[in-house]
Write a structure and sequence with these properties.
Helices cover about 45% and strands about 15% of the residues. With about 425 residues, it is α/β, with parallel strands linked by helices.
Length: about 425
């Protein structure tokens, strides 16, 4: 059966995953980006981001994947245009929709194309676009991909949200048909509700993280072990175990931005979203609690050598947006400490964002002569280090702040380390 050709506008992380996965499903995909160097490298099969399985998918489907800088190539060949452009926050906290507006302008007066909005946009964006462009086909199809497992998330979705009004119902039917082979439940709704589902989902997950971090902080004061608390809570099927892992705060391209966006939307409508205000505050404070843990054991930090293991906001990605490591590096530098960082994937990509920290070539290089090690990102290789042998020998002071409760606490304590976890 011949499959519908697809256009993808914006070949960042979401756009490239979308394009590659639709190509894997047998569609001819035309993907457009305004950066010529990116288009050229992708045309050579070079994937500029770290996402497990994505380079293999791009290579495997090279004959069906076409990268271009010309919008006309998409308009000529595809009726459904998946919009995957950035919508970063502005100084006011509102979403910057300039890239979305640029796509709409380039579409012109066409009545043969529909915009399928995958970019995260404020609730009401679709309604506003259709009001200004009467007759434009518009479908809201938010993405729910997790960095580090995006290919699997796309190919095995737990749900696919498709929002459209009556005018665009036929386009929405076509979008639904694209996802039918994947087997996920289709949630068919109006555009505004589809837009809200994305923001509300991420805001709820962020709330769950901030909640367990607050429980962790209280557990430290009262002598409880938050890992046992989270395990007991998670066995309740009304709560579930996911996102009940305490740590040094959430980051990345989605949670901070989407929580702030929903709070801003509520404020613009005259409603004070008090819960999300607290979620944001808790997360920012959580990133900084590590400093007090270090000071508790080391005293004043000027001149102290601190090693940060992990720069990316989570494992299996090279994304450093809103990463806790950036906050810690900045605060430690402000306290006068000397900071060395190591990440197996990020490398020196984020050097300009790390407040003058030294980028180490290996984890052992980072811990050499350190007064403390802070584990920021739970990369598997960090658990495999010889902590009780070579790591301890290289450190000046055997102090570990385990920001993800990732390491073997008992083994470290037995070997003579001072161990600080989160909520333990």
């Amino acid at each position: 059966m011949e499959r519908e050709p697809i256009g993808v506008v914006g070949v960042g992380w979401v756009g490239l995953v979308t394009a590659a996965c639709f190509a894997e499903l047998g569609h001819e995909v035309w993907a457009r980006d305004i950066v010529p160097e990116k288009v050229e490298s992708l045309s050579r099969g070079e994937v500029p981001i770290h996402e497990p399985g994505l380079p293999e998918l791009v290579t495997k489907n090279a004959e069906r994947l076409h990268f271009t800088t010309e919008m006309g190539d998409l308009l000529e060949r595809a009726g459904l245009l998946f919009v995957c452009v950035d919508t970063p926050p502005t100084y006011s906290g509102d979403a910057d929709l300039s890239r979305v507006e640029a796509v709409i302008r380039e579409l012109g007066d066409s009545d043969e194309h529909a915009l399928v909005m995958k970019s995260t946009v404020p609730v009401g964006t679709g309604r506003g676009v259709q009001r200004r462009r009467d007759g434009l086909g518009y479908v809201s199809n938010p993405e729910f991909l997790k960095e580090g497992s995006a290919v699997d998330d796309f190919m095995r979705p737990d749900r696919v949200v498709v929002g459209a009004d009556e005018h665009s119902a036929a386009y929405a039917d076509r979008v639904e048909a694209l996802y039918e082979p994947l087997g996920g439940e289709i949630v068919r709704t109006d555009v505004a509700s589809a837009e809200m589902i994305k923001l509300a989902s991420n805001a709820f997950l962020a709330t769950k993280i901030s909640f367990i971090n607050e429980i962790a902080n209280v557990s430290e004061e009262l002598g409880a072990d938050v890992l046992e608390v989270a395990r007991g809570m998670g066995l309740d099927d009304r709560i579930g175990p996911r996102f009940l892992q305490p740590g040094v705060g959430f980051g990345g391209s989605c949670f901070p931005k989407d929580v702030q966006a929903l709070k801003q939307l509520a404020g613009n409508s005259g409603y004070h979203f008090q819960l999300l205000t607290a979620v944001i505050e808790v997360n920012e404070l959580q990133k900084r609690r590590t400093i007090s843990k270090l000071q508790k054991h080391l005293g004043p930090l000027p001149g102290k050598e601190i090693a940060l293991l992990g720069v990316a906001f989570k494992p299996n990605t090279d994304d450093v947006r809103e990463a806790t490591s950036l906050v810690l590096a900045g605060r430690l530098a402000g306290e006068g400490a000397n900071v060395r960082v190591y990440d197996p994937i990020v490398g020196d990509k984020a050097e300009h964002m790390l407040a003058g920290a030294h980028i180490a070539e290996s984890a052992l290089d980072a811990v050499d002569g350190a007064d403390a090690v802070v584990l920021v990102t739970e990369w598997p290789e960090f658990a495999e280090l010889d902590w009780t042998g070579e790591v301890k020998e290289r450190m000046r002071v055997p102090l570990v702040v385990d920001g993800r409760n990732f390491l073997d606490r008992e083994a470290l304590v037995d070997a003579g380390f001072t161990y600080e976890g989160i909520g333990r």
